[in-house]
Amino acid sequence: MVAFGIIGYLMRKGGFPAAPLLLAMILGRMLERSVQQALTMSGGDLAIFIQKPISAGLLLVAAFVLLSPAVRWLWAKRGTHASEPRP
Predict the structure, then answer these.
(1) pLDDT beneath 50, residues of the chain
(2) Pick from 40, 38, 57: which is nearest to 48 by CA?
């Protein structure tokens, strides 16, 4: 209990919201169990996650959401160098 209090205090000091961590702790086990069940049914074949259009679309959306900050950062970094005068 004390450890969670310390983690909560450090998160508040660092400006991190607690809700995503709580959701990850609750939904993480369910997600892991579902992925294990899907892989068991497919015999370990990862293609089961992209065979149906809905699951492939959700994976693409998740990849976009996860990669967009990095792409924006790279784009901004490239844009600052492009605006500087060349010697």
Answers:
(1) none
(2) 38
The answer for residues whose C-beta is within 8 angstroms of residue 18's C-beta and 6 or more apart is 8, 11, 12
Tokens of 34: 């579902």
Measured CA to CA, the distance from residue 81 to residue 77 in angstroms comes to: 7
Look-up of token digits 């490239």: 78
* pTM exceeds 0.85 for this model: no
Tens digits of residue pLDDT in 66-83: 999 999 999 888 876 655
| 1 DSSP assignment | -
Contact 59, 46 (CB under 8 A): no
The answer to whether 8 touches 18, Cβ cutoff 8 Å, is yes
Tokens 């809700």, located at residue: 19
